[in-house]
Amino acid sequence: MGLEDVLADLSSRHEEILGELVEFASIPSVGADPARADRMLEAARWVADRLGRAGPLSARIVETGGQPIVYGEWLGAPGEPTLLVYGHYDVQPEDPLDRWESPPFEPTLRDGRLYARGVSDDKGPMLIPIEVARSFFRTEGALPVNVKFMFEGEEEVGSPSLDGFIRSHEEMLAADAVLSADGAMWRPDEPSIVVGSRGVAGLEFTLTGASKDLHSGRHGGGVANPLHAMAQLVASLHDEEGRVAVAGFYDRVRDVPEAERAEIRAMPFDEAAYLAELGAPAPVGEAGYTTLERQWIRPTLEVNGMWGGYQGPGGKTVIPSEAHAKITSRLVHDQDPEEIVALITRHLESHVPAGTRLTVTPGAGRAGAARIEPDHFVVRAARRALSEVYGVEPLLVRVGSTVPISELFERHMGLRTLFFSFSTADEDFHAPNEFFRVRRLYEGLEAWTRLWEEVGQSGPSEAGAAGTGRPE
Amino acid sequence: MGLEDVLADLSSRHEEILGELVEFASIPSVGADPARADRMLEAARWVADRLGRAGPLSARIVETGGQPIVYGEWLGAPGEPTLLVYGHYDVQPEDPLDRWESPPFEPTLRDGRLYARGVSDDKGPMLIPIEVARSFFRTEGALPVNVKFMFEGEEEVGSPSLDGFIRSHEEMLAADAVLSADGAMWRPDEPSIVVGSRGVAGLEFTLTGASKDLHSGRHGGGVANPLHAMAQLVASLHDEEGRVAVAGFYDRVRDVPEAERAEIRAMPFDEAAYLAELGAPAPVGEAGYTTLERQWIRPTLEVNGMWGGYQGPGGKTVIPSEAHAKITSRLVHDQDPEEIVALITRHLESHVPAGTRLTVTPGAGRAGAARIEPDHFVVRAARRALSEVYGVEPLLVRVGSTVPISELFERHMGLRTLFFSFSTADEDFHAPNEFFRVRRLYEGLEAWTRLWEEVGQSGPSEAGAAGTGRPE
């Protein structure tokens, strides 16, 4: 049968596909770094080239005002559902560089893992559907479903252009569901499907004391030290119970039904093993919730960076003029990112310590929380595909992190997003020594093949029936 | 008379001396930067060379294990007092470089000010006694007093080698008083003599959460964020009244007599003008004391640097593994630097937030507070010298900052130190755009000449009578 031919073709190309990933991950496509604008374009062109080689996909680069989007489509299966495949070719900054065991943009194979910045988030996972399409076209000359590919280059900076792009390309992007190659499974050996993710809202702020750096001996004791003020202000953001102390922060947070909390508590989760893996001495967070609940169904406020004064070797007796902090908040239904930024800003403004001045600037990411129904047609197809690959029924889980597209597609087009990534949560994708398990690359190729086949068999009417999901 | 000849010779050499300072300040002698070890040695050799040119001073470079000390002496006035002249040829780091209007090591003259790192602290002031000696030798062939010169290269990193050097060279350094070319006068047009300075004690600490940087979406809410912990811990160091909240911190602090506080309140000090000059919105500090009291007679605890997480452009959704802070405390009589470091360490240890681990490392500087009696023979000579140069009686003031040598000479040799520097407190010497007023260079040349002459005339018996100061 056709499916077996496609899988055989993919198996025969394993080495070739791994080589492609090495080439892709060698491009330092760090979107946050303006000095690498050329390398971002190089990565976009690389993706468009690979899409073009995969088959008749009309691959093209579409300008957005920010980083370009790479787009391609095949609509040769009339009557079948249309899946919009999402991924991103930009990667996180690689710092701190001195903690990488091999250079971040020289992909290195060690113990069945490929180490490089972006290899797990999201270059490995997004390469999978491209290669699956290539094998379908090589063996069958067609795909079992209609597929649209959309790869962006701004995911790691909060997808600032995506909202406008979706709104101005609704017809081009029209589909029955979104399949995201971004996201990550919970564990490498236990297949899982994400049915919920948190939103995000960020901002940055500066406290200024004197207009210039001062000698801390001569002036110390007389004027405000912005570092002390920053410590006070940041400390004021949480109460002693680990709750976010920003007025109104929890106002729109729904009480999670006890049944749902019971489900989460029943998940196979070994807290001690989790902490040991991170090298964390203790679980810390909001009182009254388990660690998984705090990460999956409760909002947070995290400082991602805080700095001011002298950081070099030795000492410098200075009272700096400025102190800085970057904050992101993870959101749950129905928190609104804009409102949360406004609430945090109001908190900061009303808690500015004496003798300092506050400046708040918006952060990069803004997205609401997202979910998909367990009986959605792509979820059902994904469960069958994963069961066949792994021999066990996948867990239905949530993730604490954010993929802004889910909420955007839901808001603008009423579409649900299925996260179908083959990276794993432990692959250090925002830290030094990011890696991607090579066998997960191969499992992903098989799973995407089976998923498309399942969706193609289930047909359009079923997709239509469940496509918009049940009301919440 | 001889004095007039010396002053005339100095006047005729004003341009030449300014040129020497430009050459000296062009050497980037940043002792805190290991990459500049060669430039430190270059600076030491430059000083030894200038001492050698000044006259028969047996100038030499003495190794210390750290940065070398430049030494020279002339003991040709038997029966006269011996003055030990102190200064330092190392300078503060120049960062933040982008805020300098002209390059920090290309001395630039603007509006009667010479701009360069170290020009005011301490290269300009320490060059003065060398040039004064040169003019005395050129015109008189002798100095009016015995003089020993000692210039160190570790003042900006807390003089770690000085204690051992003094103890192992007590005979070589024996003198009746120390004359420090380091320190700074209060205001450019109002001569002042410092009769007290604060001590210093520093440390650095790190809070570690997980053993690696984590994705703040995936893990946020579950494990400790060392930046939140750092904010809490730093905020715990002061109470709401601006007092240092470290247990035992004030135990050895003496109550300052009301008469002394009244004297300080009577000083000509315009707080509004002071704040305006710094660009500071408000006075901030310990409740119950005026700004001058807080800077002169009260101890402080200041964070000089605090950092962790992502500081680059854009955002990075990270929970960092580590957060760092550098602290220095300014001390008054009779606080002991070692004890203060131990008390702060104990406070940190007993306030470590959950889920983080603390590491404390000692900071560079350790020195007690110091003072000199208003009727000490060098103070009386300095008052007369300054009255002649400026036409007004100098103010007796204190400074909030630290010159470790005072306490060291007092502890090891029973000597008092007179600060006789011609830099001014507003010359940004620990900030970008450090400058030195050129006319103060010339005033300093005259004042040092008159001071040595005064001490020479007052003779040894008077020095002996007041040399060890009254008991405190």
CATH superfamily of the largest domain in chain A, by name, is Zn peptidases
Largest interface: A-B, 101 and 101 residues
Q: Structural class, judged by helices and strands of chain A?
A: alpha+beta
Rg on CA atoms of chain A, Å: 23 Å
How does the overall form of chain A come out from the CA principal axes? globular
How many H/I helices of chain A? 14
CATH fold group of the largest domain in chain A: Aminopeptidase
Mean pLDDT of chain A: 92
**What helical percentage do the residues of chain A reach?**
25-40%
Cα-to-Cα separation, first versus last residue of chain A: 41 Å
- What profile does the largest beta sheet of chain A have? 6 strands, mixed
Notes on the protein architecture:
With 472 residues, the first copy, chain A, is of the alpha+beta class. The first copy, chain A, has two domains: 2-197 and 369-466, Zn peptidases (Aminopeptidase), CATH 3.40.630; 199-253 and 299-366, 2-Layer Sandwich (Alpha-Beta Plaits). Helices cover 36% and strands 21% of the residues of chain A. A six-stranded mixed sheet of chain A has the order 1-2-6-3-7-17, sandwiched between helices. In chain A, α3 runs parallel beside α4 (119-139) and α4 (119-139) crosses α14 (438-466). Chain A is globular, with a radius of gyration of 23 Å. Mean pLDDT of chain A is 92; it is low at 460-472. At the A-B interface, β9, β10, α7, α9 and α10 of A face β9, β10, α7, α9 and α10 of B.
